[in-house]
Design a protein that fits this description.
With 98 residues, the chain is mostly helical. Helix 1 crosses helix 2 and helix 2 crosses helix 3. The protein is globular and about 30 Å long.
């Protein structure tokens, strides 16, 4: 059990180290499954990530972990029909994206 806890903590640290990668992976998988246009990179997400690490709508600091569901960063399509393409994405909180 202890090894599983260590692996879980390592995975959590990696997610917290580069959260844009998690958003990219989740949205890429979703886009492929649902045939939504997708041409962004992890760097595209990092380039638009709010410098203060706060949701531009709620002004709350992004947090990680399911216990902070409403403050998790999410990737939003500005114009939904265009998909996840350069110039059409924003990083906002789960609460703002709901």
């Amino acid at each position: 059990m202890r090894d599983a806890e260590n692996v879980s903590q390592i995975d959590k640290n990696k997610r917290n180290e580069r959260p844009a990668k998690r958003l990219w992976l989740v949205r890429r998988r979703y886009s492929l499954k649902n045939k939504i246009p997708f041409d962004i990179t992890i760097e595209d997400i990092e380039n638009i990530w709010p410098k203060d690490n706060k949701c531009p709508i709620t002004k709350k600091i992004f947090k990680s972990g399911i216990e902070n569901k409403f403050d998790l960063p999410t990737l939003d399509k500005i114009i939904p029909a265009k998909g996840y393409v350069k110039g059409n994405i924003a990083v906002i909180s789960f609460q703002a994206n709901s």
